Amino acid sequence: MAILGNIIKGVINLTDTFSFESNPIENQEKVLKNLLETAKNTKFGEKYHFKTILLSDDLQESFADEVPYFDYNKINKKWWSKLHKGKTDVTWPGTPSYFALSSGTTGKKSKRIPVTDEMIDAIKSSGIKQVTSLSNFDLPADFFEKEIMMLGSSTDLKEKNDHLEGEISGISASNIPFWFKGYYKPGEEIAKIDDWDERVANIAENAKTWDIGALSGIPAWIELMMKEVIKYHNVENIHEVWPNLQVYTSGGVAFSPYEKSFNALLGKPVTVIDTYLASEGYIATQIRPDANAMQLNTENGIYFEFVPMNPDYIKEDGSLKKSAPAISIKDVELDQDYILIISTVSGAWRYLIGDTIAFTDIEKAEIKITGRTKFFLNTVGSQLSVNKMDDAMKHLEETYNTEITEYTICAKRFEDGEFYHSWYLGTDLNADENEVADTLDTFLKDANKNYKVARSKALKGVKVKIIPQEKFYEWSDKNKKKGGQVKMERVMKEDKFAEWEEFVN
Description:
Blueprint: H1 3-18, H2 24-39, H3 43-47, H4 50-53, H5 59-66, H6 72-78, E1 98-102, E2 111-115, H7 117-132, E3 147-150, E4 158-160, E5 163-166, H8 168-173, E6 184-185, H9 188-191, H10 196-206, E7 212-216, H11 219-233, E8 247-251, H12 259-263, E9 271-278, E10 281-285, E11 294-296, E12 302-308, E13 338-344, E14 351-361, E15 366-372, H13 386-400, E16 406-413, E17 419-426, H14 433-447, H15 449-455, E18 459-467, H16 470-478, H17 494-504
Parallel strand pairs: 1-5, 3-6, 3-7, 7-8, 8-9, 17-18
Antiparallel strand pairs: 1-2, 4-5, 9-10, 10-11, 11-15, 12-13, 13-14, 14-15, 16-17
InterPro entries: GH3, GH3_C, GH3_M
GO cellular component, one term: cytoplasm
Domain GH3 C-terminal: 390-495
């Protein structure tokens, strides 16, 4: 009998019993007020008159009127760069203890995003919320005695001036509570290995000595890790190595494109729980099994705003136009794509995180990620979002009985002067590329009226190239972005796509 597991599960159930349904609208009002109060004497707070905003009858409206939108390039150039020159009290009191390095899905140069002690506390609080919500998933008591494999970036953070630098998954893992370290795998020594392939090789070698009950990490890299473990031990599936694996906590990207290939590595079904941890903060987590959605962490250090997704609001570089209207959580609507804007306890203000979301339940503040602003393909008016592209990939998987975990697309002008959607699909499918292109084109015409109109006008056609999925991982490796929080570019501009095609060919 799992005595310890029963005790832990009992504590979780008790905590959940005494917790109450919080009000997202009230949470957000309190968070914004706290942010403004704390930062009112910073250089940023003085520039944008936080003290005056705090006197307003409508904080949210006054805040939106006074403070402009910022993307990373804008806020870093005007404000965060001063932190690297020894300035204090810039956009948040004092100086940050960490900088999260994030090259995201574009470019080789890492962004350096401040992570304050208050943000670490907020991430921990959101993590506790995730743990207590496990009571909703009807997991057996012995699950709570098993170990958890957290596959992120290296926890060997680099010291620079008066702070430490690394990816947010490495920063988070280096701050796990002392009581959790006994459950945490691959353990501190292996987690510090900087080279991703070497780290995974060590995991594979030690895998059978661990009793893993849960996995956590970005789907593409978790899959590669499982493949290496399966290969090393010469078994059919991961459950032959970790028979008690019951939960997978996904994060950062939609899980649906990976579902088929992920399940193929399992010996039995596992519970999949979505989370949304970005370099800028812990955005949302799934709290119940009967909803394919995540609840915004409205009470933990992040104030959210939402800009209705409209190509007219987005500049060529992916940033927002000043005229783009933002609303608070009290005014959102169901099933409307919104560009996510955040202000945080790390000193990000009205910050364009780059993701688009849609609400699936307003009362519970539950959302799903629908895409990236930079991955919105509208070169010739096709208005394709990532969720529509993901749907198209699922359709191809079902039609051709295959797995497509990675893909990329560009609206490319060919030699005839016409625009074509040029797709690269990562799959071992043996099929005629022209036939696949026709199937893809037909599906998107039926699924998206703007795409159908574009195909009758400026978009001449669709071209498909089928390549091994390993090419996508090699591309990430070439760009020094293997593992961790890295996600493959779903949409590329023509200059980047030219580099991609040269690499593939």
